[in-house]
Amino acid sequence: MPKVKEVCRHVRSKVAGPFWVTIDLMFDSQENYDRYVRSPALSADSIAAIYGIVPETISLYPIPQLKVLKISYPRRSPQGSIEERDLHSGQQYTYLLNVELS
Fold this sequence. Notes:
The chain has 102 residues and is α+β, with helices and mostly antiparallel strands. The chain has a single domain (4-82), classed as Alpha-Beta Plaits (2-Layer Sandwich), CATH 3.30.70. Helices cover 19% and strands 27% of the residues. The chain is globular and about 45 Å long.
């Protein structure tokens, strides 16, 4: 099974305000987008298991015109708090790179 890093030309994460993180999966072709955007491995339940959050708090935004899946979820603690380990959420995407898609 292919991994996210093998079917996406670019994967990034970023801060989406002080309480949210957004991850963008930019697929490398329309064929891969169509095949994997609804993969169970990219479902709210799977994302929740990876990041240790509640599935109901995850929002998935497929954008077919751009071949992008946008994933948004709440931060565990507000940006800049004492518990913060990734102020700009720039490293959060790495947990998805080796996820196998079906």
